[in-house]
Specification:
The protein has 170 residues and is mostly helical. The protein contains 6 helices and no strands. Helix 2 runs parallel beside helix 4. The radius of gyration is 21 Å and the shape is elongated. 31% of the residues are buried.
Length: 170
């Protein structure tokens, strides 16, 4: 009886660890996918920020765009260095969806541009935070460390973008 209980307990513990491992794996991202997705998102952020510098007349929008360019350029440079060591490919352009969003932004002017840009940044940074949280538990320690170190900046960008969205409502 004791052996049966011990075996059942062991089997239960093993099954539980397998389920937990599967759940953990679902919350991570492959290193190659992370590098490609994160670098493409960074490029998209930089491109739309440059557009904001060109089209917006609002000082707060321009200041935010400048910080986006600075922070995402630095993050993409660091990611490219890591990727190079691992022989992973970084994206050199934004994904198609982000290109489409940028095209829509190009059509906007004035307050309409500011509102659209702020809302675009809220959405983009929510997506980036989700991506980086998945990478933060990656078995690749270097990419996980990069993701963890980058998350506070992304969260700060989200907060500022949310404030801008309140300032420039749709």
């Amino acid at each position: 009886m004791k052996k049966t209980n011990l075996l059942l307990t062991g089997a239960f513990a093993f099954a539980l660890s397998m389920v937990a491992g599967s759940a953990m794996a679902a919350d991570t991202i492959d290193a190659d996918d992370f590098v490609e997705d994160a670098s493409a998102a960074g490029v998209a952020e930089i491109e739309t920020a440059k557009l904001a510098l060109e089209k917006s007349t609002a000082a707060d929008v321009k200041a935010f765009a400048q910080s986006i360019i600075k922070d995402h350029t630095a993050a993409n440079r660091e990611l490219a260095t890591i990727a190079s060591k691992k022989k992973l490919k970084v994206a050199t352009e934004a994904e198609l969806l982000n290109k489409a969003k940028a095209a829509v932004l190009k059509q906007r002017e004035g307050e309409s541009f500011n509102a659209a840009y702020a809302n675009n940044q809220v959405s983009a940074h929510k997506d980036a935070i989700e991506l980086f949280k998945k990478a933060s538990v990656s078995p690749d320690a270097e990419l996980a460390s990069f993701a963890v170190a980058t998350l506070p900046k992304l969260e700060h960008h989200l907060h500022v973008a949310q404030e801008l969205a309140k300032t420039y409502p749709k």
